[in-house]
Amino acid sequence: MKTTRSVHVIAGVACLALAATACGSSEGSDSGDSVSISVVTGSAGAYYEAMACGAEKAAKAAGAKIDVQYPDAYDPTKSESLIRSASVKQPDAMVVVPTDATALTSALSSVASSGTKLVFADQTTDDPSVAVSQVLTDNEAAGAAAADAMADAIGGKGKVIIDGAAPGSSAVDERVNGFKDQMAENYPDVDVLGVEYSQSDASKARSIINGTLAKHPDLAGVYVIYETGAIGIGSAIKAGGLTGKVKMVGFDTAPTIIEMLEEGVVTATVAQQPAQMGELAVEQALKAIDGEEADAEVSVPFTVVTKDNLEDKDVQAIVNASANQC
């Protein structure tokens, strides 16, 4: 998708040149002055840039103005600041990735009470009633699917560690719980050592895996529930000469993750569809703006990607979604 937009530097982050088409605000070619939509993602990075692409595609099709902002870290404090700043502009609708299930309650309630139509994307909160719609992956099911992939990779036995982004996020908690529950119910010989949280920091993720390997040199696998952590841990596995020895199951399809999948560093990754999520979220927002009843919840499918199915047409469509739409 080609649009004309100004590029914003949000909270100190300038997006990389190759991703800059997802980093600003865009105006539709029709009567864009009539409807305005703000989007606050969870952080910067390929996943949320793809979500922004989908959101911009839907906005352009409707002739709506859209402004996309990225917190410079996956942090509810930073999210709240951008949500409140966007709300001051009184957009007709706001699409938000709630980075914490409880910490953003006040800010989100304020948006909804102002008359702005609120849509949650990617994650939810403890009180989703303030949103007219939620567009989500079934994260518990995705976590269970990741457990199946891990168990298959390690032969149904061995020690496994989990790296999350930050506790309190609905997606993180559901992916962790789905994984742990599936292991407990179906793979009794897999020992889940626990959950570490790297706060969306690749260097912290590397420290987690290196520290775990020092204590457990017989570690069989690591489950990483988000993009940045998978990249950090993958680099540590490569540097330690552990490719193929420590199995990694991750999330999402950033180019670096796909490269590591092809190299054998990543055994499997759960591919969400962020571009579709962004597009559907804006479509729900537009329905609400037009006075129609939005769908309370929209589920977006996921796919477990391995080296064996990477070249399948449907999988390639998901992997290339960002490049196809931006």
Automatic annotation (TrEMBL):
GO-annotated molecular function: carbohydrate binding
Keyword terms of this UniProt record: Signal
Residue stretches making up the Periplasmic binding protein domain: 41-293
Main subcellular location: other
Gene3D superfamilies, A to Z: 3.40.50.2300
Origin: domain of life: Bacteria
Signal sequence segment: 1-22
Cell location: Cell envelope
InterPro entries on file: Peripla_BP_I (IPR028082), SBP_2_dom (IPR025997)
Record keyword Signal present: yes
Matching Pfam families: Peripla_BP_4
GO annotation, cellular component aspect: cell envelope
Keyword Signal tagged: yes
Family from the record: Belongs to the bacterial solute-binding protein 2 family.
Protein name listed in UniProt: Ribose transport system substrate-binding protein
